[in-house]
Amino acid sequence: MTHNKGTRIEFRNITKVFKNKKTETKALDDVTLTVESGDITGIIGYSGAGKSTLVRMINGLDTPTSGQLLLDGQNIVGLPESKLRGTRRNIGMIFQQFNLFHSRTAAGNIEYPLQLAGVPKALRKKRVAELLEFVGLGDKGSNYPEQLSGGQKQRVGIARALAVNPSLLLADEATSALDPTTTYEVLNLLRRVNKELGITIVVITHEMEVVRSIADHVAVMEDGRVVEHGSVYEVFSHPQTAVAEKFVATSLRNTPDVIEADDLLAHEGRLFTVNLTENSGFFAATSRLEAAGVSISIVHGGITTLQQHSFGKVTVRLSGSQAAIEEFYATLQRTTDIEEIQR
Q1: Which of 56, 116, 183, 316 has its CA 20 to 30 Å from the CA of residue 224?
Q2: b vs e for 49-87, b when ≥16 Cβ sit within 10 Å of the residue's Cβ?
Q3: Boundaries of each ABC transporter domain copy (predicted)?
């Protein structure tokens, strides 16, 4: 398998307005975003946030109303269709519903883009065999799509996307139709594609767990805008926007929900949820509590490791000297986020 130099993508002030006779809809609103060569970037947002429109810009299926889109330094906005075809050959697509030809075998589906590219038959057969092995389907080449599981179909989709050695892979909700175990296997395969082949991958999703599993960076979209962008660790450990906080909460589940909080509040003591990072000062503060005779118990929480950093949240119940508890609260407020859960 060939190791590529992945494509670098730059969105510069991209706006997209869809017009009909009565209304105008701004699908993208002044989007500026860079995806570095060889990176895996997750683009996440709720339905209607603009993420699929953004992807259609990359492969030239849609054109911005204004702004520039650079692939490896070349602005593709306004390129004639003949030149866009050459650009698209460098881009592989993976779809939510697999989009396989039912009349072709797994091998036949993978071979199709090679036929379109005019690759000689012997080289096509060699490449297809190589790709089937790479995606773990070496014995499934003669199977038709209806004879394959959802995960196997998506592996065929990935192999087909890799057939012509692209430098960029776009995965649009590629795991939404799969169960959790199969999702994990497909994401692992995409990670291999990135690490072993050097391909830049843009993953469009509404599932933060997908971003957490695979991405290096994440862009959070809302109402056609990128409202937050950073490393996965930065966005997970310190989300800056309400929409990012909501997405992170669905993946980490490290704070009690309303029902859990009600159950916890039924007992004596005060409850605090503390943000744990490598320099939060939590453990030093709790040792001072114990010296002051305050009892402390952990009642909820979760720790995650991402990009070689550990972070999380813990909810503790404190009982005893109110003065010592207030000092604990004031001390941690200076070094980390701490919030009291109240009735």
Answers
A1: 183
A2: bbbbbbbebbbbebebeebebbbbeeebeebeeeebeeb
A3: 9-248
